[in-house]
Specification:
267 residues; mainly alpha
């Protein structure tokens, strides 16, 4: 919806996505303090309250307007989706996403194992979310100057370093500092993947392209990271799990670099 709304304007997706980071950051700290004070049983009421407020606000929204009036020919979309370039890109995105979702799914459990309370967990999420804010502002202003695949190589490299640090950390306070690397790793990753898919998919199928990314990012990556990460966390411990995440990120980094070299050869 955001992409359709800003199409044909000078606005950038990142300048809108930054508000999600701000909301997440505020909620992480505030909800962490509330849960510490009143207990985790309050979680469901906080969820229902924020969802209900979102529902009320959403009644004032209107649909994004399509600027393209081309006839939808799904055979053309099928050709793009089934192309080797698109499938390879989405497979690499899946690998990087699984590594990232390890952290999303098991960070709180890891911190609890290290002896952290809900406040430290909240601060960890707060730091990661706030770290996105400056990178999204920078990408919205200067991101168009750089090609997507080199940016994804940089993002994956930072993921490697980030998860290597996590595989060694023992003090939960250090986790808060490491979470600041979320800005360059996830911030660049999300913005750049969306922009790359936007360039590969025709405008009239943009919503479908973003839906495929959402399925890969949230669905498949969540499924694989939950199963693999849960097994690693249970049988080998969180440090090994983060080490595997670093290895997956390294595979993604090398793969994005190969795609970049191939795209230069084509040019």
């Amino acid at each position: 919806m955001t992409l359709l709304t800003i199409q044909g304007s000078t606005k950038s997706f990142a300048s809108f996505r930054v508000w999600g980071s701000i909301g997440f950051a505020v909620a992480s700290l505030a909800f962490g303090m509330v849960l510490k004070q009143y207990g985790a049983d309050l979680t469901i009421y906080l969820c229902l309250g924020t969802i209900g407020l979102s529902l009320i606000i959403s009644t004032g929204l209107t649909d994004g307007r399509r600027t393209s009036h081309k006839k939808l020919v799904f055979a053309d979309l099928a050709k793009v989706i089934r192309s080797n370039g698109f499938l390879m890109f989405m497979f690499i995105v899946l690998i990087a996403s699984v590594a990232h979702r390890f952290n999303d799914g098991f960070l709180a459990l890891f911190l609890q194992q290290l002896g952290a309370d809900q406040t430290i967990i909240g601060w960890s999420w707060l730091v990661s979310a706030l770290s996105e804010v400056p990178i999204f502002f920078l990408l919205s202003k200067y991101g168009h100057r750089y090609k997507e695949l080199p940016l994804l190589v940089v993002s994956s490299f930072v993921y490697v370093i980030r998860f290597l640090f996590m595989s060694q950390v023992e003090n939960p306070l250090w986790v808060i500092a490491i979470q600041a690397m979320h800005s360059i790793s996830f911030g660049i990753f999300l913005f750049t993947v969306i922009r790359y898919i936007q360039g590969m998919i025709p405008d009239e199928y943009r919503a479908t392209g973003q839906a495929l990314f959402a399925v890969t990012w949230s669905g498949l990556a969540g499924l694989f990271s939950g199963a693999l990460g849960g097994w690693l966390f249970r049988d080998w411990g969180p440090h090994v799990m983060y080490g595997v995440g670093a290895c997956l990120s390294a595979v993604a980094m090398a793969s994005f670099f190969v795609l970049h070299l191939r795209s230069r050869d084509v040019e």
